[in-house]
Design a protein that fits this description.
The chain has eleven helices and 13 strands. With 363 residues, it is an alpha/beta fold. Strands 3, 4, 5, 6, 7, 9, 10, 11 and 12 form a nine-stranded mixed sheet that branches. The chain has a two-stranded antiparallel ribbon with strand order 1-2. α1 links the parallel β4 and β5.
Length: 363
């Protein structure tokens, strides 16, 4: 096997003051620019605060049937697109999900980046050997990067974006420079997908990029939530941004200081168990609040995350099967009980985008 490029890198660690110090380190046999996923400093130049919320209407697809066939009219020749996959390859199901996304979602992207926690270096490296052998076209455009991650998927996405030079020079919202978030000329990609390994691809499709372009959106998500008396928001497992959208994401989400529930979301202490509170606060600040940074008509969700009874597709096999019938291109692998029900009722869907893998992961 031809090894990936080995790079001497700086791993950034948080010191006792909450800021960062660097250590030169080598990752054996592989690659890649490790850096901490924390931007936690108490100094003003390390803190990013979101601007006030705006009440606004956002588009949805209202669960209309979508066409998952590859578009007959290719993207403009000048367009470049990037796919970033945040992974935690700790189980066979997660490996299968990652494989399926490479096999069925990545073909329309010019570059693909896998962003992994550094402590799962060995698991990720073993997976890459199989990719090189069985997905050679994906291998040619693939990078893998490792991080000391303390902010869940959001940290893995943001650190990969930093390494691709999207957000490290983004100004603070109080800056007076003439570089607003809509000035995106220095971003080297026209569209960027952020996806994680909690979902398995079931269709060979480029519907996400084509929908973003056709509707001239800045943010498209696979799922939206719009329940009565609750805020409209877009779920995070699969989102696609244009240049303006990724600038807004980098500026307002990636530049937040490390999120702690007691400081940032004290209300979760009354609702969630202690082990869930920080993670819930990350979801609220980086996922639920994201739409507040966009203008009317700039965002869209393709499918409702819940049905009229409030049942979610990630937990309810009947609603998921209904969505599959109208073109829903994924299944959930991170919910063990739901995965077993999918395997029992739609095993062929699980196999469609995992042809290069052995089937033991289904057992």
């Amino acid at each position: 096997m031809a090894s990936l490029q080995l790079i001497t890198s700086t791993i950034i660690h948080a010191d006792s003051s909450g800021c960062h110090s660097g250590e030169v380190a080598l990752l054996p046999n592989l690659v890649l620019l490790p850096r901490s996923s924390s931007h936690d400093c108490e100094h003003n130049n390390c803190t990013r605060r979101p601007h006030p919320r705006r009440n606004q209407y956002h588009q949805t697809n209202n669960n209309a049937t979508i066409d998952n066939t590859i578009a007959s009219n290719p993207k403009p020749s000048s367009h470049r697109s990037l796919m970033i996959i945040a992974i935690y390859p700790s189980s066979p199901r997660k490996i299968a999900a990652l494989w399926s996304q490479l096999e069925c979602f990545s073909q329309s992207f010019d570059d693909v980046v896998i962003s992994s926690p550094v402590h799962l270096h060995n698991e990720t490296t073993n997976f890459l050997r199989l990719v090189e052998t069985k997905l050679p076209e994906v291998w040619k455009k693939l990078k893998v990067k490792f991080y000391i991650n303390d902010r869940h998927d959001m940290g893995l996405w943001c650190d990969a974006l930093d390494d691709e030079a999207f957000s490290r020079d983004v100004p603070h919202e109080n800056d007076t420079t003439d570089n607003p978030p809509t000035d995106s000329n220095n971003i080297p990609y026209d569209e960027i997908m952020l996806i994680n390994d909690s979902i398995i691809a079931m269709e060979n499709t480029d519907v996400f990029l084509t929908t973003l372009r056709t509707n001239r959106l800045s943010l498209l998500s696979l799922n939206y939530r719009n329940e009565t008396n609750r805020k409209y928001w877009l779920e995070s497992p699969l989102r696609v941004f244009d240049r303006k959208g990724i600038r807004l994401f980098s500026r307002n989400i990636c530049r937040m200081r490390s999120i702690r529930w007691r400081r940032d979301c004290p209300h979760v202490g009354k609702i969630y168990r202690p082990s869930e509170r920080d993670k819930r606060c990350v979801v609220e600040r980086t996922e639920i609040d994201l739409v507040d940074y966009f203008e009317e008509g700039e965002v869209m969700g393709l499918f409702s995350a819940t049905n009229e009874k409030g049942e979610a597709w990630i937990d309810t096999i009947e609603y998921w099967e209904y969505l599959r019938g109208v073109g829903f291109p994924v299944g959930k692998v991170s919910r063990a009980r739901m995965f077993q029900r999918i395997k029992a009722s739609r095993r062929e869907d699980l196999l469609r985008c995992t042809a290069g893998l052995r089937t033991e992961w289904l057992d």
